[in-house]
Amino acid sequence: MRFLALFLLAASLHAQAPAAPDNTGRQALTNQLDTLAAQQTAARREVIAQIHNKQQAIIRQHEVRTRLIALLGGPWPEHSPLNPIITGTSGHEGIRIERILFNSQPNFPVTALLYLPQSTTKLPAILMAPGHSPAGKAGDAAFALAFAHRGFAVLSYDPIGQGERLQYPDPSNPNKTLLKGPTGEHGEAGLQPTLIGDAVARYFLIDAIRATDYLLTRPEIDPTRIGAFGCSGGGLMTALTASLDPRIAVAGVACFTTSYDTLLPSIGPQDSEQSTPNFISSGLDFPDWSELFAPKPYAIIATTEDMFPFAGAQSTEKESRAFYTLFNAQDNLAFITGPGHHGNLRPILPQILDFFTLHLHPTPSLNTVISTEAQRSGETSVLPASAPQRPTGPPQPVLPATDTQVTPTGQVSTSYANTETVFTLNEKRAQQKLPTKRAQTIAELQHAVKGVTHASGNHPPFRIIPIESETMTQSCDPVKSANTKNQIGLCKPSAPFIYDTSTFKAEYPDVILTVLELTPKTDKKQSPAKLLLEDSVPSIQDLSHEKDPREKALAEAGNFILAITPRPSPPGTEETKSPVLGTFYLTELRAELTGHTLMGLRIDDTIHAIDYLATRPDVDPNNITAEASGHMALVLLHAAILDPRLKHITLHDLPPTYTEYLHQPIPHDAPQDILPGVLLHYDTPDLIRALGPRVTILQ
Q: DSSP letter at 677?
């Protein structure tokens, strides 16, 4: 079934993307979430400011570590057999390179390269996590060789979704992903773990912990001298591993460290394993990674023009140094900086090597040579002869594919039958973790929905700002219509209609929504109201020229119509990590970091709209119904649980249930529906059952 879904997906990814729509609503939502994040990071700084001694710092470390493990979905599974295999060996400039396969979880292979310099004594080791390159470990060969020539053993491994460990390979070309690149792979893999209250970073961490386990099985390695190094996405994996695996003695985190105050307003959240739900709202920020490692040696490595803002790295270094000082270990925190953009470590590679050499004390390899560039510049740091000589940019691969390919085909999925993926491991974990009984009554579900979606329940009134208004009339003779310019449809003698059509901006604190009103001209003092949740509210011009708009038909029946587009409004777009993830993936990550969800924000907007309808003198507050389709139908379903003023809702084309999402390997456009931990509390059918006759489902 998994590969059938991959085949169907492959055929759907060639459609041309539409032109980017109006992004004002998206930017407004982004600004709102960033403001909230800034308030949360400011509150965190107040907490840090109260830490004045080593004992308080140790208490903070314990609290943060406990919090982090809970956010990731810990504790971790018991260590199963690694079942390591050496699938081949080669040599390069005197360095032995072994191609390694081991299981981080049962039947979940990790592909890795072990670089071993010649030595007569036990070696210090570096656990090397690659950045977001499709090449994975092969792309870090030059870095690994540089460390090896300094006398370090290096274990460089493929992260999930990279190198030989694609989770979603294209069946027509298994060495390429269906999901555009590593960030697409990570984003899709992160959806289902989120549903059961886990973060996908959990799986990345388990891989790294088991990689360290493997190093400790090797007689060549000194278990007391293990360091960790990674750049970009590998920087996150290094920071995560160093903070939660006490066997890591020294850590170097490159081109990742910044601050949320600078990251969110610039490039925003980047990937699911870097954006654990509720991270910022739990009082955490980038300095916590380095502060968790105190007093052990830690290097913050940054380039001045990195997309991860350098100013954020500076502020993190400043706070972390004060924290290290409480341990009298300020000299153990290094700040290695250099010129250039993201990943430009070549100019500062000697300083990085010096940092690890200082703290792990390797014996230089018998094959070490001084590069000609180093001789000319007078540098004393040694580099391998194969190290790239260009002055800028990251080191490039220097090994042939035959030296870096661990599996027979170049992919775990096609080399070994029925191996696990994050998706299948998560299905098995869900069987163990999900409760047998969930919320059932309206009261229980109201509590659960508020807790899961983070809908605020605080609904100040709308402030209506008119944009455009026009009177629409139609009689039995279209020629005599009072508004022939905007005449709609054909005359229906049995049901003539006259209504005012207006578009508004409905505003409440920090939020602006696009709203369409159709006010029926009627002798009735109060009209029934119909609330419509729409992906994009039509303009008056659209309404006039559309052949048979739903809004027209409902107004013709004498309803007061309020159509809204919940946030972001208008929906706009964003950078697309993968077409399958849709255009709300990064927005949802941003919301989750701050302890919110897009679903919860949209529920709030819906209940605001109900408040507005219930206070209008021309609306019958006891006859408010609503209708929505697709993703908005799921929003409306949640809102109806929370607000009994909705007497009835009609839902068209509901998205899959959360259980169905759990068992779909590649759901399309799912991030806007995803709720952290939802299946621990309820599923869509639970909401439908609780509403009973108040809901009609149409597919």
A: T
pLDDT of residue 690: 97
Sheet strand arrangement including 95-105: 85-92, 95-105, 108-116, 153-157, 123-129, 221-231, 250-254, 298-303, 333-338
Read off the pLDDT of residues 57-66 as tens digits, 9 standing for 90 and up: 999 999 999 9
Question: Which of 464, 533, 532, 448 is CA-nearest to residue 502?
Answer: 464
The whole-angstrom separation of Cα 265 and Cα 288 is: 20
- Enter the DSSP assignment of 609: H
Average pLDDT, the chain: 87
Going by C-alpha positions, the residue among 126, 299, 110, 342 that lies closest to residue 205 is 110
Best CA proximity match to 602, nearest among 684, 672, 542: 672
Q: β-strands 85-92, 95-105: how paired?
A: antiparallel
Which residues are paired to 108 by β-bridges?
105
In three-state secondary structure terms, 300 is strand
How far CA 611 is from CA of 465, 515, 554, 619, 637, in Å, comes to: 17, 14, 20, 11, 17
Q: What tokens were used for 128?
A: 């090397």
Name the maximum alpha-carbon separation found in the chain. Answer: 101
Answer with the residue of higher pLDDT: 11 or 690.
Answer: 690
Residue 151, phi-psi category: left (phi > 0), alpha (psi -120 to 50), beta (remainder): left
CA distance 551 to 559: 10
583 vs 378, higher pLDDT:
583
